[in-house]
Design brief:
alpha+beta
Length: 83
Amino acid sequence: MKESFGETVLELSKEDMKLNPKNPLVRMYDDGDLIGKFSLKTLEVVENIDLADYDIRFAQKEIKRNQTNWLETWRDYVGILNA
């Protein structure tokens, strides 16, 4: 018997970049459903739609690990939008 778990995805959203370019966010999806948003600068939960404690711990760990690259990507994309 094979157990299957949902797919969790963290992503930077072009929509967030357009709406609020000075407030970098990371969205967290579970099986395609948005379950929360995190500040890319502080790692704090900005919007909790359906986050469990383990979701928050996982996201904060992953965001911290990729924070420098994601902030650079955010700045680069926002720069393109404002050019």
